[in-house]
TrEMBL record:
This is Transcriptional regulator, GntR family. CDD domains: WHTH_GntR. Transmembrane segments: none annotated. Coiled coil: none annotated. The lineage of its organism: Bacteria, Pseudomonadati, Acidobacteriota, Terriglobia, Terriglobales. Residues 12-80 form the HTH gntR-type domain. Pfam families: GntR. Keywords: DNA-binding, Transcription, Transcription regulation. One of its GO terms (molecular function) is DNA-binding transcription factor activity.
Length: 133
C-alpha cells in the first residue's frame, strides 16, 4: 500500500499533486531514507492514476534526488537532498506569492496567515523530529 495520502483536487495537475504528497511524506518522516518506494504499477494502482503519470512522478523524484535507484533492490527513499542553488529564491517568488494572493482573495489578515503557516509547519516538522530522535 502506498503511504502517500491526499485527495485529488480538480484543476491541479495530478503529477504535481503526487510529487507534493511524496515530498510531504519524506519531510514529515512518513517515508524514511532507505525505505522502498512503490513501483510504477503499485503507485498507479494504489492512487488510481495512469501508469504514465506514476512513472513521470517517480522519474521527477529521482531527478530531484528524493529517490534513488539501488541495484538489486529497486527505488528507495534517499536522504533529504541539499537545496540547489536558486531553490529558495524560486520558492519565495512562486509559492509564497501564490499563498499571499489567495490569502488576500479570501480576506485573510497577515497574522492569521502566519498563524496558519506556523500550525502547518508544526504538523509537518514534528513527526520528522520524532523519527530522527
Amino acid at each position: 500500500m502506498t503511504p502517500l495520502r491526499f485527495q485529488l483536487k480538480a484543476g491541479e495537475p495530478i503529477i504535481d499533486q503526487v510529487i507534493f504528497a511524496a515530498k510531504k511524506a519524506f519531510i514529515s518522516g512518513e517515508l524514511l531514507p532507505g525505505e522502498p518506494f512503490p513501483s510504477v504499477r503499485a503507485l498507479a494502482s494504489d492512487l488510481k492514476i495512469h501508469p504514465n503519470t506514476a512513472h513521470k512522478a517517480i522519474q521527477y523524484l529521482i531527478q530531484d534526488r528524493w529517490l534513488e535507484v539501488r541495484q538489486g533492490i529497486g527505488t528507495v527513499v534517499a536522504r533529504r537532498p541539499e537545496p540547489r542553488r536558486g531553490d529558495r529564491k524560486r520558492l519565495l517568488q512562486q509559492e509564497v506569492e501564490h499563498i499571499v494572493v489567495e490569502a488576500i482573495r479570501v480576506e485573510l489578515k497577515l497574522p492569521e496567515l502566519l498563524e496558519a503557516i506556523e500550525e502547518q509547519w508544526a504538523k509537518i516538522e514534528k513527526p520528522q523530529e520524532a523519527a530522527l530522535g
